[in-house]
Each structure stands twice: as C-alpha cells, then as structure tokens.
Please model this.
Amino acid sequence: MPSTLSNEEIIERVNAWQDAGFVHPLTCINSKHPKLIAVVEDGKVVLKCTKCKYEQGKIPPSVLEVTPEQLSTEKERLKNIGFKF
Model:
C-alpha cells in the first residue's frame, strides 16, 4: 500500500472504489444503509455511514492500492467483453 498518499488521494481512491460498479462497495454494518463515505476527521480519513453513527477507521488495503485510473480501465475492459453496469 502506498504510504505517501495524502488525505485527498485516499478520498479519491475510496470514491473511485465506491463508484466502480464491479467491486463490492464499502458498506455500513447495517445492510439497509447507503455506502460509506470518506471524510477527514482529526487529520485522518475515516469511513462514515450517512444514516447512522457507524464509523470505520480502517480502509481495506486493496482500496488504497488500486488507482482510479486502474478501476476505470478495468471497467472499460469488462464493458468491452459484455458486462453491463
């Protein structure tokens, strides 16, 4: 995992992951709630549910390792072989 990511880059990667459409989104422990959002709290990015008080301090390494460009390229590849989003 890149250790030099800024908070803005982390948020960008989380947002790209959440919007990708072909990976499991980061979700609240209550399955009926919306996807978690990335926010900066006390200088650190955390994931929060907009419907309840659930907060997740740890972002999965796979989310941080994949760039938005990689997600976009993979989505295009999947579309080209027939996947629908």
Summary: The helical segments are 7-19, 61-65, 68-80. The longest strand covers residues 37-41. The chain has one domain: 7-75.
